[in-house]
Amino acid sequence: MISETKLQKYKDWIFRSSAYSMALSIIGIDKLTVAPPGGSAYRDERTAFLAGELFSIQTEPEIFAILAEMKDDEDLDGDTRRAAYLYWKHIRDISCIPKDEFVAADVLMNKSYDAWLKAKNEKDYSIFEPYLKQVIDIRKKFYSYRNSDTDLYDQMLDDFEPGMNREKYDAFFAALRERLVPLIRRITEAEQIDDAFMYQNYDPSTQKKFTDHLLAYLHFDSEWGYQNETEHPFTSWTCENDCRTTTKYLADNLSSAMFSTIHEVGHATYEHDISPAYDGMILSEGVSSGMHESQSRLFENYLGRTEAFWTTLYPVLQEHFPEQLKDVSMEKFISAMNVSVPSLVRTEADELTYPLHIMVRYEIEKGLFDGTIAPEDLEETWNRKYKEYLGVDVPDASKGILQDVHWSDGSFGYFPTYALGSAFAAQFMHAMRKDMDVDAALREGRFDLCVSWLKDHIHKYGCRYDAEEILRMATGEGFNVNYYLDYLEEKYSALYHL
Ligand code: ZN
Known about the structure:
By secondary structure, this protein is mainly alpha-helical. It has 22 helices and three strands. It is globular, with a radius of gyration of 23 Å.
């Protein structure tokens, strides 16, 4: 049994780490939402210093030894052993990096983000390219310090989704390609749905007022949540009772802010619902990127795009936009919400063509790290793949290679989890529908009943179990891609009368 002194040191260490993590998280949210760009150089240097301090705390050799002892200590309870193991694994993977290089990387990532934003605004990939090259090099270097025999990109994939690798993702995307590509082709040839009314002028300040109703409907409570605006919507948090979401209002697009709001609240609700017993420690995080995305997509698509979800909300939306929506029936509105048309921008993509956007990014990342694609060929490769998979011509880099923020901080291996999360969500939804009448609950405005199911079967566990285990406990079987493919085929065949 581990000594009391060591256990106390471990608890103090968690507290010290969480204080720095909280500060860095708030500074990060501030940077991406309201902070004036002029101050970024000053802020970024100090942020890097704080990140360095956190790094020093996290990699204290004495703590690493204590964690190694704790993770195998049979006298400790399961929660504590699991937490010790996850901390130990994380520290093993970062402590091999020299601190000065770690801090320099933080400075680079901040500059790279600024360059990405500038490049996107000016539609000029060449502004971002030199930074991206440096980011790729630094990621390669950091992974090389691990001295692992595992392939570089496989390590990256595993960091975002433990247990996943190229072999599994290749099989996953092959299954998607086989059934979705013919379906998308049939839809392209079918009679199209008119959704032009969604792209009239929708005053952003009125959109914001409707968002307040939407947030209340979703039970996103100002006691623990706050929504802001940003360029690229995301969610961040410091603890279960401080979850921040963001959205972006477009004057000529009604659905963009609504669905990014529903999506991000899905992420925030997951974090909020994790057992309070885990607060401040590693167990109080969503278990993987795919699992996180499964919750946001479940909110956004599997619940948020149904007729039942809008039963009580649509009349409120019509009251906010009487001129634009007075002649639009509920049925027409729901069809428009679910239109499938191959498009340029991932975050605006419909449910059905969405995984093809991910496939483009997955193949590019694989190529970047096996050396078959060079950073200077990225823009051309991107445009070619979009033509090949989605049949669209990319007009400029802001709607192409520069549309996503992820590569600016070197989050390679992240994108595939978006598609995987959508597939997890289908399997959860299938299980939820067996347990309760989801549509009846939604028609009565009881979104909270769906949230309760998710909390009991998924959210409360945080990182206590692996994603695969949670999937098995909640649905009675391991991951099965067919729930996702069946759902899409059924839904879109009905919608387009195929
Ligand atoms: Zn998301």
